[in-house]
Specification:
The protein is mainly alpha-helical. 74% of the residues lie in helices and 0% in strands. It is built from 18 helices and no strands. The radius of gyration is 21 Å and the shape is globular.
Length: 414
């Protein structure tokens, strides 16, 4: 469980594809809010609507993708989603160069990227479960999580500097290219992926759209984790566009400062993800998830007290370091627990239901917090979200359940 074991050539290509797309996403951090504020001169309500609408409509479009992807080979789906995201993002600098960029186009691109994100994550989770032995899942998820945080450390400052030097479209182009390189990496994995067997009717039935939710809500431990994740992610993400407006507007942070404030603390996410296998080996999955879940709720309220200049920058970095360290520890353990407790023939639908619900909740909360910020100001809205987060540990499960064994998985299929 040290996280140093070799997981094979095919996992190496999968990880490489994830690395390049993660660094592209890190470079593009906050690009759409920046474009909306600096290029299209949008206000807090519009910026919040941009984040909310993309996630909400993307989640709605992604609902039927879960059953569709479940019974198809996962790698071709992942390649297709990478190419869709590449094409959608490239349309933004193309329209900007022609002087035709609009807020409506940013909304459409946000929807396309959000939909492809959900389908990609669901397919990749199922693909990883078939590629890596169960005892190595936490190591693999820990590597993905550490990559995410490393990219977040490096990406936003470089992205902010690139925007300052070359203009607001630079990082969008870089992210689009990263998805193209990711698709090439996935193709390089090679080997043959068997087509999943489908029991029952050959055609998609309406009831299958809800199968992922039915499984999660009937599971004694996944259910509270599901609600906890939805609320926590929703409240944290709802404040992101408001922070962009507050920092780039009244507090007059430069783009590179905005990037640095959220990038440097992500070293904590790398630390947390690297510690996850060791802590789970010593204390067990449930204790680590519960402790990290409680601790991550305690930090965001501090963002309400941010001030201009160096003191404000330091405060953001301290709060973010504590938050992302806990998230870096919590996330890979949750991802592994979810795969361990989900039958192979329901992984895609379960992960799709999880992602759709999370995206919908983030969209709804972002819209609500955008309206709240318009009425009370961004700082007050951020404070309200921080206070509500303090109550989210009440949603964490108090008991641990054993993973599905082979007989339980077989029974669940029948």
């Amino acid at each position: 469980m040290t996280g140093r074991r070799a997981l094979g050539r095919q996992f190496g290509w999968l990880w490489a594809a994830f690395v390049v797309s993660s660094y592209g996403t890190g470079l593009r951090f906050g690009a759409f809010p920046m474009i909306a504020v600096l290029v299209l001169h949008s206000g807090p309500t519009q910026v919040a609507a941009l984040a909310a609408a993309g996630r909400a409509v993307g989640a709605l479009v992604a609902v039927p993708l879960g059953p569709w992807v479940e019974f198809r080979r996962k790698r071709p789906v992942m390649v297709a989603m990478d190419l869709i995201r590449c094409a959608a993002l490239l349309s933004v600098p193309a329209a900007f160069a022609l002087g035709r960029l609009s807020f409506a186009q940013l909304l459409v691109v946000s929807v396309a990227v959000a939909t492809a994100d959900i389908a990609f994550r669901a397919a990749s989770g199922a693909y990883l479960k078939g590629l890596v032995p169960p005892e190595d899942l936490l190591v693999a998820n820990g590597r993905f999580e550490s990559t995410t945080w490393t990219a977040t450390v490096v990406g936003p400052p470089l992205g902010g500097a690139a925007i300052g030097m070359f203009g607001p479209m630079t990082t969008v182009v870089a992210d689009a290219v990263s998805y193209l390189l990711s698709a090439l990496g996935l193709r390089a994995i090679g080997g043959t992926e068997p087509r999943p067997a489908r029991a029952g009717a050959a055609r998609l039935r309406a009831g299958e759209l809800l199968e992922g939710w039915r499984y999660v809500l009937a599971h004694a431990t996944l259910r509270p984790l599901f609600f906890n994740a939805i609320v926590v992610n929703g409240l944290i993400m709802a404040t992101e566009p408001l922070l962009a407006v507050l920092l780039l507007g009244p507090l007059r942070f430069a783009p590179w400062q905005y990037g640095l404030a959220f990038a440097a603390p992500c070293v904590g996410g790398l630390i947390g993800s690297r510690l996850a296998p060791r802590l789970v080996a010593r204390f067990g999955q449930h204790k680590v998830m519960f402790s990290a879940g409680v601790l991550r709720a305690c930090w965001p309220v501090g963002l309400a007290f941010v001030r201009p200049g160096v003191p404000g920058l330091v405060l953001i970095m301290v709060v973010q370091f504590g938050l992302v360290t806990c998230c870096g520890l919590f996330n890979p353990v949750l991802a592994t627990y979810r795969l361990d407790h989900t039958p192979s023939d329901r992984v895609v639908r379960t992960l799709t239901a999880w992602s759709v619900s999370s995206s919908a909740a983030i969209a709804a909360m972002t819209a609500v917090w955008g309206l709240l910020a318009a009425l009370t100001g961004p700082r007050t809205a951020i404070a309200v979200a921080g206070v509500l987060l303090l109550a989210t540990p009440l949603l964490l499960p108090r008991r641990e359940h054993a993973p599905l064994d082979t007989r339980e998985q077989a029974a669940s299929v029948t």
